[in-house]
Design brief:
Blueprint (H helix, E strand, L loop, with lengths): L13 H22 L1 H7 L3 H10 L13 E4 L5 E5 L14 H11 L11 H12 L9 H16 L15 H17 L2 H11 L1 E3 L2 E2 L1 H9 L8 H10 L12 H17 L5 H9 L20 H12 L8 H10 L3 E4 L3 H14 L8 E7 L6 E6 L41 H10 L7 E3 L45 E3 H6 L3 H8 L4 H10 L32 H12 L3 E3 L4 E5 L5 E2 L6 E3 L3 H16 L19 E6 L5 E7 L4 E7 L10 E5 L2 E5 L6 H12 L13 H5 L33
Parallel strand pairs: 1-5
Antiparallel strand pairs: 1-2, 3-4, 5-11, 6-7, 6-16, 8-9, 10-13, 11-12, 14-15, 15-16, 17-18
């Protein structure tokens, strides 16, 4: 027997509709009253209190741009790396697929273009469905946008604990506030503006915020190029990013996607044929992982990390580190740097070839700067930022100081003993005091006892070399690496053959205060903090520092030698040329800061001598050459520390200065660089020209011509060809006629750490 409907209560009749409306109204009244109890309790009465509460809610919403991805760019505009708190890239509405716009409206708010921010029909529907045990939401896209903006503002202020989530910690008052703000927002912005804002802020996945990031993450495409089934899938994902994740829950994802497609069909947004084709399309993702940070940099991860540390240490970016990091990682900044990608590729090739991922973890580093600006052109080392099977991984930057000049972390090694690469600065003071580089000194002298009468107009020289006084604190007699050089020789010959006793013989005739001024003027300092000083001076009144016993970073050495290339002007190294926020506003960056450091004629004299290092001296085996096998002017100095654990070549052309280092980067850096094998070649003892030298030479051959290899300006004639001063009893012939076999620059026992 068929049960007949009572026509009085049939909802198809007019009377039935009236009773239905009254019934729904009654249900709504009960539900709303129940929901408003907390607010009513605060205000004092259920009805009037709720109205007053709504009226007093703010109607203004701070619609700041949501967190955006920050990009770090090379000098040519190519991307080095991206960093973010939320992986998001803003796109305009015309750069979003029409399918995506229609899909999200169909499933989230079909009356989006009809309501004024709050959909009363949807609220009634949701209340009835909830009363029947089928809980539904009724938030419009505008309300969802408001909620996302409120939460984004809280996150930007570091108030993550105050973020409100539906069904978790959002109360009636929060919901009413959201409604009022949605109504106000609709009066201020167009529907297209709201939809654009919503699609750029909404959460799709822990690695994808906003439609552009989601398109790239899930499908390796752009928001503009999303297909219908892709758009429907992403639109369905908004409701529950975890439940409908196509990677972990492909079946649920397909069911949700097909529901969206059915809604689009029923709302006339797509044709039946489009619907059927899309439904028949399998769920296939093509994931592009959101690899953020310098560890995943396309090139130069350590330079990238150095740049981030510079910004994190800059008070112009916030009152404290937390505030600065919020801006840097969430502000959608565009950071333009000085890095030359071509130079970086060459630098990386050289350090990788030096010893690669050697099991004993010896380090190689190479950094270069432009002399006339201080711009860092390349920064490379032979390690990986992340662990890699069979690799040498380290997050420590071998090229820079541990701390910046204000004592803030740079994540740097702090450098290594520079060895004989310090000798040119004593030579510079020799020329500065008006002496000729052709003057002969007594390099046979090996003893400098505790009471030696050093000249120092502004301090006291400490240290001694005298085996007879070892018990009193002196070191053993000064040594050279090779025995044939204990004799009289011109200062120039002593420098280009890296003779320790010649450096001391010249220093004995100088004011140590002048040597200290030269070293300070060219920016030389220790890379390690000491006694509250983040980068203490290299104390040239300590004798060991004449031969490089204080740890110094490669970037510091490159910048110091760049002073010679720049005719005596020192430029502080810089890495960042511009920073703009997502609105295009300029933020503080770095600019060249140069100063007169040494006299131009002195710089020219040093360049003359350092060219001889490469022509006939300790660097003659590593002279850079072009592909045509022709030379270009290069001035450089080799260096090796006492235990051979730190080896260097530092030098320059007129347009580029480079420091190449190979040595021990671990702990106290006291593993002897002896009896080692790298790349199948055995080294009885490491020397500057052996591994650091080829790194320097190959890099400069490939890179320096692009930056200028003009001849160096000539020094004054009397500086080079002054009348030789020969101490009585001098022996040997003029160095101009001596064999040009390179001398090793290992200083023997003369460069012990202080």
């Amino acid at each position: 027997m068929v049960t007949r409907k009572n026509p009085i209560f049939d909802t198809a009749t007019t009377l039935g509709k009236i009773f239905g409306f009254l019934g729904v109204s009654a249900i709504c009244g009960v539900l709303v009253a129940g929901l408003l109890v907390p607010a009513a309790a605060v205000s004092g009465s259920a009805a009037s209190g709720s109205i007053e509460f709504f009226d007093t809610l703010p109607a203004e919403l701070k619609v700041d741009p949501p967190n955006q991805t920050t990009r770090i760019l090379a000098a040519d505009g190519s991307v080095i790396a991206s960093v973010f708190e939320e992986n998001r890239t803003k796109v305009s509405l015309d750069k979003i697929s029409p399918f995506m716009k229609e899909a999200v409206i169909a499933v989230e708010d079909s009356r989006f273009f009809e309501h004024g921010g709050v959909d009363t029909t949807g609220i009634m529907r949701a209340l009835v469905a909830t009363a029947r045990g089928n809980k539904q939401g009724a938030s419009t896209i505008t309300q969802q946008y408001v909620n996302n903006v409120l939460n984004a503002n809280l996150a930007a202020e570091g108030k993550d604990e105050d973020i409100k989530l539906n069904g978790v910690n959002k109360g009636v008052g929060d919901k009413l506030r959201e409604m009022k703000l949605a109504i106000a927002l609709e009066k201020e912005f167009t529907k297209d503006q709201i939809l654009e804002g919503y699609l750029n802020i909404v959460f799709f996945n822990r690695d994808a915020y906003g439609i552009e990031a989601a398109s790239k993450f899930f499908f390796s495409t752009t928001a503009k190029d999303l297909t219908l089934p892709q758009a429907a899938l992403l639109a369905g994902l908004v409701n529950s990013p975890s439940a409908f994740d196509p990677i972990t829950n492909p079946e649920s994802s397909k069911g949700r996607r097909d529901l969206v497609l059915s809604l689009m069909l029923s709302q006339g947004k797509i044709t039946q044929a489009e619907h059927d084709t899309a439904v028949a399309t399998p769920v296939v993702t093509k994931v592009t992982p959101a690899r953020q940070g310098c560890a995943y940099a396309a090139t130069a991860p350590y330079f990238c990390d150095y740049v981030l540390h510079l910004l994190e240490n800059n008070p112009a970016y916030g009152a404290d580190l937390k505030e600065r990091q919020r801006l840097i990682y969430g502000g959608g900044l565009t950071i333009k740097t000085t890095l030359d990608p071509k130079a970086q590729i060459s630098a990386q090739e050289q350090v990788n070839a030096s010893a690669g991922a050697n099991p004993d973890k010896w380090g190689a580093a190479l950094v270069s700067v432009q002399p006339d600006s201080g711009k860092i052109v390349s920064m490379a080392q032979n390690t990986t930022f992340l662990p890699k099977k069979g690799g040498f991984d380290s997050q420590v930057n071998f090229n820079v100081d541990q701390l910046d000049k204000n004592g803030n972390d740079l994540n740097g090694l702090g450098g290594a003993q520079p060895g004989s690469t310090m000798k040119p600065f004593t030579f510079a003071e020799w020329l500065n005091e008006g002496k000729s580089m052709n003057t002969v000194v007594n390099a046979a002298q090996r003893q400098y006892p505790l009471n030696f009468p050093w000249r120092n107009s502004c301090g006291v020289v400490t240290g001694a070399y005298n085996s007879a006084e070892e018990g009193l604190g002196a070191a053993q007699d000064l040594q050279n690496a090779e025995p044939q050089f204990y004799r009289y020789m011109p200062v120039l010959f002593g420098l280009y053959n890296s003779i320790n006793t010649a450096t001391f013989a010249s220093a004995a005739q100088l004011d140590f205060c002048g040597i200290q001024k030269v070293v300070d003027a060219v920016g030389l300092h220790s890379g390690l903090p000491s006694n509250g000083d983040p980068n203490p001076k290299i104390n040239m009144f300590t004798l060991g520092n004449l031969l490089g016993s204080t740890q110094t970073a490669p970037l510091t050495m490159a910048s110091a030698f760049a002073t010679f290339a720049n005719d005596g002007k020192y430029c502080e190294p810089i890495a960042i040329t511009s920073v703009t926020d997502q609105s295009g506003a300029e933020l503080p960056a770095q600019s060249s800061s140069c100063r007169d450091a040494i006299k131009p004629e002195v710089a020219r004299g040093v360049n003359y001598a350092l060219q001889e290092v490469m022509n006939v001296g300790s660097g003659s085996l590593i002279q850079p050459r072009l592909s045509t096998d022709t030379n270009f002017p290069v001035a450089a100095k080799t260096g090796t520390s006492n235990l051979n654990e730190s080896t260097w070549v530092v030098g320059h052309t007129t347009g580029l200065a480079t420091a190449a280092w190979f040595g021990d980067p671990l702990g106290a850096q006291n593993r002897p660089g002896r009896n080692l094998t790298f790349n199948g070649q055995f080294y009885e003892s490491l020397d500057g020209y052996m591994i650091a030298g080829p790194m320097f030479s190959r890099f400069m051959s490939q890179t320096a011509p692009a930056y200028g290899t003009d001849p160096f300006p000539e020094p004054p004639n009397n500086m080079v060809n002054g009348t030789p001063t020969r101490t009585p009893g001098s022996e040997g012939t003029s160095p101009a006629t001596e064999p040009s076999t390179p001398a090793a620059d290992n200083p023997g026992n003369s460069e012990k750490k202080d």
